[in-house]
Amino acid sequence: MKIFRTPQSLQKWARAAKLEGKKIALVPTMGYLHEGHLSLIKKAKAMKADEIVVSVFVNPVQFGPNEDYEKYPRDEKADLAKCMEAGATAVFFPTPANMYLPGHSVYVNEESLSKGLCGARRPGHFRGVCTVVAKLFNLAHPDFAVFGRKDYQQAQIIKRMVRDLNFDMKIVVAPIVREKSGLAKSSRNTYLSEAEKTSALAISRSLKNLKPGGSVQAVAKELEKAGLKVDYVECVDSESLEPAKKVAKGTTVLVAAFAGKTRLIDNRSF
Ligand code: PAF
After folding, report:
1. Whose CA is nearest to atom 2 of ligand 1?
2. CATH architecture classification, 187-264
3. Residues 147-203: tens digit of each pLDDT
4. What are the strands, taking DSSP E only, across the chain?
5. In this structure, which residue's CA is closest to atom 1 in ligand 1?
6. pTM to 2 decimals?
7. Which CATH number does the domain 2-174 belong to among 3.90.1170.50, 1.10.10.10, 3.40.50.620, 3.40.309.10?
């Protein structure tokens, strides 16, 4: 497995691999890999990529000033071992300094799907995500990139970016991987105390119990009752992310809630 630490070294290698006719898959991550990430690598393998590049980069530009950039968990050694085990052929570990040169002043802004949900609560977040993902696409020359469905809004925005900026590649969205308890896997789960973990179960439970025609207000109430602080529970059209009047086929219900200080997200499509 190759390890790249500079954008230039990855780009040079990826360009050569493309010229040899190799099919390249990219799995963008912020590291501290768990089974959710590994499922994305396995998906790339199942799709017969010749090269599977995993990027591990806690992207400062997508964190707000009061968010957890400094404290975000990092473990390079464990990530390397997990990438190798899951079948990655290359890992990219850039630094903020080599990804964002002094005076960096170009950003990618998606202006429709980013308006609501997490975009409304985390100003600048998707601008940071789109910018770093566009850079990773330019560096790794992927034929396809795999994202997790847990970040439903992010996946929709990236698909739109690929369409609107004519990136010559496909976006693959892989299913949410959950703990046995139902809790969606997330690197941020490591912040949770046992009590918070128990409260957090209300998120997947309430989504699972929600029926077409059911009410998002009832979900929010259940979350508050379990001790969570609701950021939002919203039902939207699965494609446009515009608010939907009722939970029905073609809609997605998305949840963001705090267990203590930890912000968790989850969703279910109908
Ligand atoms: O989903 C994530 O982990 C990040 O938002 C991503 C796509 C790796 C960009 O930093």
Report:
1. 29
2. 2-Layer Sandwich (3.30)
3. 999 999 999 999 999 999 999 999 999 999 999 999 999 999 999 999 999 999 999
4. 2-4, 24-29, 51-56, 90-92, 144-148, 170-174, 229-237, 251-259, 262-269
5. 29
6. 0.97
7. 3.40.50.620
